[in-house]
Each structure stands twice: as C-alpha cells, then as structure tokens.
C-alpha cells in the first residue's frame, strides 16, 4: 500500500505530442524538477496525445496525500493552451475533490534567463561556419510555434529583437511553424533578397517534435535551393540550465502568489486589433477529442489532425 504524505506537490503540465522523442524530453525535464525539489511530490500531466493526462497526474498526487498542488505550465508563451485549456481542466478537476487546492503558475514568457539560454543555444551552432564568421554578416531566423493570440506571437518577435541587438547580428526576423505568418519557407525566401550568405535557423521551442523536425526540414530545403548560402540549424532550448532556473522562478512566484499572466494585452479581456470578437469568450478547453489519444509509438496517426487555432 502506498504511504501517504502531506508534502506539497508539483504538477508539471505539458502540451503533449505524438512525437515520442518530444515526450521523452519533457519527461526528462520533469525528472529535473523531482531532483531539484526532493521535499515535494512531483509528477506530470499532458494536455493532449501523450499520457498521463492532467487528471491522471492530479489523481496520482492526491493518492499520495497531496492537498496543495502547484501546476507549472511547461510552455514558453501564454496563448490558448495556457490561458484557456489548462486552467479549464484544472478548475474542473478541483471540483472533483473536497479538500484539494491547485495553484496555477505562469508560462516561462519573455525572461532574461530564457533569452540568455537562447543565446547560448545559438552560440553552440556557430562553430559550423568558417573561420571568417562574423555575426554582423549573418541573418538570424527565430522560429516560434505560432498561435492565434497576437500577444504570444509578438513576444516571440520581441525575443528575436533582443537576440539580434544583444548578440550583434546583421539582421534578424521571426517566423512561425504554423497558425500565423510568415511560415519558415516564406520568411527565408523574403530574407534571401537581403543578400546574407550566412543564416542561422533557431527554433524557439522547449522540446523536439514534429514541428521542430519540420523546421529543420525547411531549413535543409532552403539550403538545397540556395547553395551559395550557408544555413546552420541551432539546437532548441530543451533542458538548458537557465531554462530550469526559470521554471524554478515561476514555481516560487506561484508559491508566493506573485505569478500573474499579462492581462493588459489579453484578447479575452480587451479589444485587440483584429481580434475584437474574442472579448468575453468563455475560457474553456478544446482538447477533449485528443486527450490521451496516444503517441506515434501507440499507432500511426498520420499528420496532426487539428489546426491548433487557439
């Protein structure tokens, strides 16, 4: 019989992926949390595809005796997943237990440590250029996931600008893997006219997955088409030590009650240009049809079946 404890608990909430490699990297990050916080119970829960789902993670912690859970979203930006889907599920789950309190943390966001981690990932790939390499002669392309939330998309653009100025690149631009524009192929072709012969493609993603692999494929296709250009693919963020430090900061903020999302530009609260109709929409989940549906290891799904337009 499992011994119960009154330890506080951490639920690391991931988006989930059909890609087995991406799920494995997320689980590795959760292991870091367990190692960094031996005084707490810790487990994971996924929003879609992968298992355990969020409800399973909460149930596991409750069975171990948890009464207070901090749910930390393993997400870079606050778009539909962090603003709607996850809190909706957590609120529903809390109603199923009499004496359980779940405190919801904030996304990693635009954070100095995250920008520093990004710069170090970019530096890791620069040795692939020649001895005459100079950043001022190089184009940096930062690729975000893409969302229908302009606040989240603009944050990626802000990070791009900070990397460009902070590292001294000749030019930098933002592209996206889906939902919004420009997509990576379009961005690379637009930038080609600028004449840069050295290009770095950097996926601003936490983990690998179908989208990161697609980004690298697009970079390879651009390289094949333009043999006079040297294209280098930077590694994504993954479990960089500064990323883990940022997660800890967000955990501490949640404990202290100081972790607040950006409501100033929230499209559900104020009229954001082009999204005026979204003000006051109910904040509810949209992932019931794919919750826990499995990864590529379980069965072959083909391409991702829904648009992520949330």
Features:
310 residues, alpha/beta, Rossmann fold, four-stranded parallel β-sheet, elongated, disordered C terminus
How would you describe this structure to a colleague?
A four-stranded parallel beta sheet has the order 2-1-3-4, sandwiched between helices. The chain folds into two domains: about 10-105 and about 240-280, Rossmann fold; about 110-235, 3-Layer(aba) Sandwich (Rossmann fold), CATH 3.40.50.1400. Helix 5 links the parallel strand 5 and strand 6. Helix 4 packs antiparallel against helix 8 (about 240-255) and helix 6 (about 185-190) packs parallel to helix 7 (about 210-225). The protein has helices spanning about 20-35, 55-65, 80-95, 110-125, 150-165, 185-190, 210-225, 240-255, and strands at about 10-15, 40-45, 70-75, 100-105, 140-145, 170-175, 200-205, 230-235. The chain is about 35% helix and about 15% strand. It contains eight helices and eight strands, in the order βαβαβαβαβαβαβαβα. Residues about 300-310 have low confidence and may be disordered. With about 300 residues, the protein is of the alpha/beta class.
What's the gist of this structure?
The chain is α/β, with parallel strands linked by helices.
């Amino acid at each position: 019989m499992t011994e119960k404890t009154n330890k506080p608990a951490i639920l690391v909430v991931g988006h989930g992926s059909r890609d087995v490699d991406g799920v494995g990297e997320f689980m590795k990050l959760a292991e870091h949390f367990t190692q960094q916080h031996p005084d707490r119970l810790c487990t994971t829960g996924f929003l879609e595809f992968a298992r355990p789902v969020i409800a399973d993670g909460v149930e596991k912690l409750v069975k171990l005796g948890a009464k207070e859970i901090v749910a930390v979203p393993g997400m870079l930006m606050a778009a539909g997943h962090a603003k709607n889907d996850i809190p909706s599920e957590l609120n529903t789950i809390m109603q199923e237990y009499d004496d359980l309190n779940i405190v919801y943390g904030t996304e990693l966001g635009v954070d100095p440590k995250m920008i520093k981690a990004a710069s170090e990932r970019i530096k890791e790939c620069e040795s692939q250029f020649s001895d005459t390499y100079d950043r001022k002669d190089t184009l940096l392309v930062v690729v975000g996931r893409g969302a229908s939330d302009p606040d989240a998309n603009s944050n990626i653009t802000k990070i791009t600008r900070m990397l460009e100025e902070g590292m001294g690149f000749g030019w930098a631009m933002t592209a996206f893997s889906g939902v919004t524009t420009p997509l990576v192929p379009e961005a690379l072709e637009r930038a080609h006219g600028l004449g840069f012969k050295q290009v770095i493609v950097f996926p601003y993603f936490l983990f690998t997955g179908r989208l990161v692999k697609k980004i690298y494929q697009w970079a390879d296709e651009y390289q094949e088409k333009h043999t006079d250009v040297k294209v280098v693919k930077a590694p994504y963020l993954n479990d960089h030590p500064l990323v883990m430090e940022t997660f800890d900061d967000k955990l501490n903020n949640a404990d202290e009650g100081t972790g607040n999302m950006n409501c100033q530009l929230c499209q559900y609260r104020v009229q954001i240009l082009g999204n005026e109709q979204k003000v006051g929409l109910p904040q509810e989940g949209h992932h019931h049809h794919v919750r826990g549906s499995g990864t590529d290891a379980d069965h072959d799904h083909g391409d991702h079946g829904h648009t992520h337009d949330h």
